[in-house]
Amino acid sequence: MGRTVVVIGDPAGHLVAGFEPELREDLHRQLDELDIRLQLGAGLRADPDTEAGRTATFTVTTTDGAEITADIWFRAHGVRTNSDYLTDGRLTTLNAQGQVPVTETLNVGGHDHVYAIGDLTDIAEAKMAGYAMQHAQIAAQNITAQLHGEQPTATYQPLPHPMILLPLGPRGGVGQLPTPDGPAIVPAATVSQYKGADLFTGRFTEQFGPTAA
To answer: What's the confidence (pLDDT) of residue 8?
Structure first.
């Protein structure tokens, strides 16, 4: 059986742009050690003619003329907000990206008892699960306060620097977390401990409880 070769393509010149240079350098180093090839700075002239996620050999050409032949590809672009159910405008007016305007307490604008969290919000930050979990904590605190007849006071403020835990298998990966002194780069062992070893399944099993098979 032949050796499996993984190619990551991105029209951007750098992976994880916007994060600290030290994180990007460590990511490139680990990818090199895994023999993962990078095709950066050029997009594709056309998408593969095979279905994403299904095995079928294809060849694509990048905008700088390089050819890539592979047996399977995974789409990691073309994200859009899943808010079609709100396009009638009865609740609120969506922005150009299809997102819902929210206040600092995560209320939908103009509604004291309606909240929005996660990718749906118009908060100016990357749409990542870690931020959505923080949104959920704020919304839960405010809903609980209202259920007790109190004024909701918990507010959400986007971080001044982006955070990420990016596993590369169960033991590798890179991470950047916020600290009072600014963003801190964390080692692969920390990424594994918090996320890579089980991709948060243990955390959510503890939070929600195991379900019967």
So the answer is: 94
Q: Are 64 and 72 in contact (CB under 8 A)?
A: no
Half-sphere exposure of 153 (CA within 13 A, CB side): 4
Residue 105: closest CA among 126, 123, 83, 124: 123
Question: Which of 44-50's residues contact partners 24+ apart within 8 Å by CB, and which partners?
Answer: 44/9, 48/73
Instruction: Give which of 12, 10, 7 is closest to 69, Cα–Cα.
Output: 7
Rounded to a whole number of angstroms, the CA Rg of the chain reads 21
What does the pLDDT look like over 11-51, one tens digit per residue? 998 899 889 999 999 999 999 999 999 999 999 999 999 99
Q: CB-based burial of residue 119 (10 Å sphere; 0-12 exposed, 13-18 middle, 19+ buried)?
A: buried
- Residues 6 or more apart in contact with residue 89 via CB below 8 angstroms: none
Give per-residue pLDDT as tens, 129-171: 889 999 999 999 999 999 999 999 999 999 999 999 999 999 9
